[in-house]
Amino acid sequence: MSGHLFRHDVDSVFCAGSASGYDIYKYYKAAIDASMRKSCASAVLIKDMPARLDKYFCNYDPEYMMLRNDISMEMDISPEWQNMDDYVHALKHKYAQRYRKISERWQELDIRELANVEVVAHKEELFALYRQVSDNQRLRIGLLSPDFIPMLQQQDDRLKVWGIYERDKLIGFFSAWVYEDRFDMFYIGFDYEKNKEYNLYFNILFFAIKKAITYRKTKLILGRTALDAKARLGCKPRYLSTFVYIKNSMVRNRIMQLQKNTTANEGAWEDKHPFRKSN
Questions:
Q1: pLDDT tens readout for residues 221-240
Q2: Predicted TM-score (pTM) of this structure
Q3: Domain 72-237, CATH number (from 3.40.1110.10, 3.90.25.10, 1.20.140.10, 3.40.630.30)
Q4: What are the DSSP calls for 104-123, one per residue?
């Protein structure tokens, strides 16, 4: 694998600013080939590659499949938004009504930012909540360890973690990177039974919007999953540069056909336009 399995904000390749795109592609591809020979790998995943290299892989290495539906859902935060009321006012009526209905039960919960010592102390509980979400995903290419988030937060205080409590019982959590210009949602976890009662997933997404506004960021990044849900909030897609190569040609052709079928049947979320026309 080239890139970071559990993060999208880590570059998969570094190069001199003066190097041409084609030269970068040649050296990058040579390094991948050498790694595959050394490891005897039967497949390679190139994750979050610089977009300017796309055309070289597409033209010179067509056996590398570009994942067309690898999308990050992102929202521009209006400088006019001072709080959630301003965001809700920018929504069309039915989307504003939906927000009000979903957020009603959220008010009953206690949302607390957790210091690193608290994250470490509750790491097994946080991991169990993360596993409930992870185990219900259609596709999972890796699994975090209980120490992953506590270790990252200890190394970089830009990673924030919030606990979601029902009468002092931890029923969910939310983590995000707070960068200079953007609020970048990271891993979440929640009790699936409590999700039915409190709409935890949708309220976590609304909470991300609230925090992006509070921190005065210009961009909110909500990530790759649940495209329809995030489009309903006002997110737009950013198409990512991820490629897969599978050495076995029969398997590769089958995967390519499956991707074509999947792409043809997706995209209904693109018709969601929750903001008023002036936005």
A1: 998 888 889 999 999 999 88
A2: 0.87
A3: 3.40.630.30
A4: TGGGGSEEEEPPHHHHHHTH
